[in-house]
Design a protein that fits this description.
The protein has 10 helices and 12 strands. The chain is an alpha/beta fold and 250 residues long. Helix 1 runs parallel beside helix 2.
């Protein structure tokens, strides 16, 4: 049985780590390089690094920050935010990213997934999907959950994998930052729908929530931010409890 992964997420704005609730009310959570190093030392399996204020002018700044983080850690490292071309991905991988996460650009032009998978391999392409439950249907949203699309979660996830996504990062916008637990019912259906690993995101508030998303949601990995940034949950303690609950972790 594959081991389950614990993945801290660093949301980056203007070179600092930030965290909010439902993607708003952001507060400072520290220096990304220092946090990345701390998580690697504590036993995180991977890191996700999302530039939530990405724009073309900031691409060089982001590349430098990626390089600094890559030098500080020895675990796999996914970078996302404002990626819209093969060239963008090339720059990030050259600077030390192991994988890239694409979201809005993939929804707007799904061919991008195929282009990136063909050029760099499916193993480094993560498609991030943000969705909200509307009238009993999971609807894919863009721009931090502000803009609904015509895509439905499970159909879009299937298309993304068919086009070459090697992993899916599913965030429930209804759960994000609320610390009320992950969207386990949707996660289980997603993991049964696609053939690639599914990362759960949005809602971690307790150790029990991680147990639930692995056992009830069948997630392959769980991503969280504030509970790790503000030391509400320690990664070594979390892994110890997961092992005690017969959930395989590294």
């Amino acid at each position: 049985m594959l081991t389950k992964r614990i993945i801290p997420c660093l949301d980056i704005k203007d070179g600092r780590t930030v965290k909010g609730v439902n993607f708003v009310s952001l507060r400072d959570a520290g220096d990304p390089v220092e946090l990345a190093q701390r998580y690697a030392d504590e036993g995180a399996d991977e890191l996700v690094f999302l530039d939530i204020s990405a724009s073309e002018e900031k691409r060089k700044t982001l590349a430098q920050l990626v390089r600094n983080v890559a030098h500080a850690i020895d675990i796999p490292f996914t970078v996302g935010g404002g990626i819209s071309s093969v060239e963008d991905v090339g720059i990030l991988l050259e600077n030390g990213a192991d994988k890239v996460s694409i979201n809005s650009a993939a929804v707007r032009r799904p061919e991008l997934i195929s282009e990136l998978a063909q050029k760099f391999g499916t193993q480094c392409i993560v498609v991030a999907i943000d969705a909200k439950l509307i009238e009993n249907e999971w609807v894919v949203h863009l721009v931090g959950g502000k803009v609904p699309t015509e895509h439905k979660l499970f159909e879009w996830a299937t298309e993304a994998v068919d086009r070459g996504a090697g992993e899916l990062l599913f965030t429930s916008m209804d759960h994000d930052g609320t610390k009320q637990g992950f969207a386990n019912k949707a996660l289980r259906q997603l993991s049964e729908t696609v053939s690639v690993p599914v990362i759960a995101s949005g809602g971690a508030g307790s150790v029990q929530h991680f147990i639930d998303t692995f056992s009830l949601g069948n997630a392959d990995a769980a991503l969280a931010a504030s509970v790790f940034h503000f030391k509400e949950i320690s990664i070594p303690e979390l892994k110890s409890v997961l092992r005690n609950n017969q959930i395989p972790v590294r």
